[in-house]
Design a protein that fits this description.
This protein is an alpha/beta fold and 366 residues long. The chain is built from 13 helices and eleven strands. The strands form three sheets. The chain has a six-stranded parallel β-sheet, sandwiched between helices. Helix 1 crosses helix 6, helix 5 crosses helix 7 and helix 6 crosses helix 7. The C terminus is likely disordered.
């Protein structure tokens, strides 16, 4: 299988899992890595919505079978990276823990993604994005004054988990290629989500962040960094933080009697919010787009998932693509010399002989 992208030639074993593991593998595959996904026997082919299983061959191995464990170790010997997302201890009990894998391939980078981490009082407990995010203090900051609102599973699963796993294994791969030494990367979602809150802990530690939701600059507390409903019931977002952008927003929206010098005076915010809300209710969202979109007022319409792929900016950048009838986001980021590929939904499901041949350098392009 011929692949393009900056990771072309990098070989990765993915032990099948859920959530951030497949997402990380999809990202690495889109960047050009050759990924072989190991699944349990009789695992169903990916459904149309499982786009995070695209772009790699999959094989079925019974990891309770000594023969299949040996096959797995043979594959590991040819790999640059392996990634897994089981609870702590599972891989060790299978005979596929760090000692076994690095013993077979000392240059291997072994990326391990969990919710709570490889150790700690909660390490073996079940959980999901909302639980990991809750423990970091970050979830407490998201929502209205009256209720915490989970931000889908963007923050802990994909941000704190998958993205930190990708950064970690690529950094460790750089080290392995320079020194010949592989290592284990422990990517815990609770750690990554907490790390992403670094700036806000800095604000809090210096007395510049209230511990109340919707009371701060970036959490909906500031009226010039918030969402507003329009006359047609649709919504817009404004983020005019800088004084010059704030002045432009006030001017174009047509708000009078505002002392621009008091932008950061929180005592002024309730009255200002009421005026901005009242102003946005005077026009439909499309009319506001004509007036504000593309200006330095830091404005954008809040688009639905059906609307977003049709927006002219997203169309111009091909931000969304058609994947076998499913509209999905295109690969990101973009590279000037080694553009990432745009693979289809799956490049071979449980084609064990063919996939193994390809892993050993005998694959023909499909």
């Amino acid at each position: 299988m011929t692949k393009t992208g900056p990771l072309s030639g990098v070989k990765i074993i993915e032990f099948a899992g859920l959530g951030p593991g497949p997402f990380a593998a999809m990202l690495l595959s889109d960047m050009g890595a050759e990924i072989l996904r190991i699944e349990r026997p009789k695992t169903s082919p990916p459904t149309a919505w499982e786009v995070d299983r695209r772009g790699r061959h999959t094989i079925a191995l019974d990891l309770k079978s000594p023969a299949d464990i040996e096959t797995c170790l043979e594959l590991i010997a040819e790999a640059d990276i392996a990634i897994e997302g089981n609870r702590p201890g599972v891989m060790e009990r299978l005979g596929l823990g760090p000692d076994a894998l690095l013993g077979r391939n000392p240059r291997l980078v072994f990326g391990r993604i969990t919710g709570w981490g490889q150790e700690g009082p909660l390490a073996l407990a079940a959980g999901h994005d909302i639980n990991y995010l809750a423990l970091t203090g970050a979830l407490h900051t998201i929502g209205t004054e009256d209720k915490v609102v989970p931000p889908l599973n963007f923050v802990a699963d994909y941000g704190g988990g998958a993205m930190f796993l990708v950064a970690g294994v690529l950094a460790a791969l750089h080290h392995a290629r320079a020194t010949g030494e592989g290592q284990v990367v422990d990517a815990a979602m609770v750690d990554g989500a907490a790390y992403m809150a670094s700036l806000f802990y800095g604000f809090r530690g210096t007395g510049n962040w209230s511990d109340r939701r919707a009371d701060n600059l970036l959490d909906g507390g500031a009226p010039f960094y918030d969402t507003y409903q329009c006359a047609d019931g649709k919504w817009v977002a404004v983020g005019a933080l800088e004084p010059q952008f704030y002045a432009l927003l006030v001017n174009r929206v047509g708000i009078e009697g505002i002392d621009l010098s008091k932008q950061m005076d929180q005592r002024e915010w309730p009255a200002l919010r009421a005026k901005i809300a009242e102003a946005f209710l005077t026009k439909d969202r499309e009319q506001w787009c004509e007036l504000l979109e593309g200006s330095d007022a830091c404005f954008a319409p809040i688009l639905s998932m059906d609307e977003a792929p049709l927006h002219p900016h997203n169309v111009a950048r091909s931000t969304f693509v058609d994947d076998n009838g499913i509209t999905r986001p295109a690969a990101a980021p973009r590279f000037s010399l080694t553009p990432a590929g745009q693979p289809g939904a799956d490049t071979g499901h449980h084609e064990t002989d063919r996939a193994l041949a390809g892993w050993r350098g005998q694959m023909v392009a499909i």
